[in-house]
Amino acid sequence: MNAPIRRRRAMATLAGLAICAAASLAPGLAFAQQEERPQRISSNELIDSGHRFFGSVSRDLALAIQKAVSRWGEPNGYILGQEGSGAFIGGLRYGEGTLFTRNVGDRKVFWQGPSVGWDFGGDGARTMMLVYNLSRVDGVFSRFGGVAGSAYIVGGFGVTALGDGDMMVVPIKSGVGARLGINLGYLKFTPTATWNPF
């Protein structure tokens, strides 16, 4: 066998080994990216995303984001989505959106939750949720509890804070409806839609 043929076979063998190695590493790299901690997101990035999402209430949104950042610091994730809720003493809340991060990708999320308290009415809302202390993307799939209050009629803007240990979610909503009250409840985040709020 002459030298050029041996060289071509050796190169083909090396190329095959390189492709096999890359294929075997790909799942590990995807897993490593999934496990990587999301980086913090600046208030300017949040305001720019919120401006595109909310439109006309972006000035109020900017003030809400700045207040949240001054109180809790920069989040390392945020969710943009829509939700609907209703209450007559006991209430239910359902929504869906996308979790955005700077460095570990985006993820579709759904949320549901029950509430109980002095709370009446119903609303539909566009929602931006700031996510704090997110250790990995799948870490958002948990329950976040707290006290939520709302006082807007016909249209308005509201901010609440919900926690699960070190993690915290701060929903910022612009809604249409009639809602008045205060309630105790939680939000459960899931990777797929479900009617079960518990």
Automatic annotation (TrEMBL):
Q: Which InterPro entries match?
A: EipA-like (IPR008325), TAT_signal (IPR006311)
What does the organism's lineage look like at the top? Bacteria, Pseudomonadati, Pseudomonadota, Alphaproteobacteria, Hyphomicrobiales
**Name of the featured protein:** DUF1134 domain-containing protein
Q: Which organism is it from?
A: Labrys monachus
- List, alphabetically, the Pfam families matched: EipA
Q: Which UniProt keywords apply?
A: Signal
Per the UniProt entry, the signal peptide is: 1-32
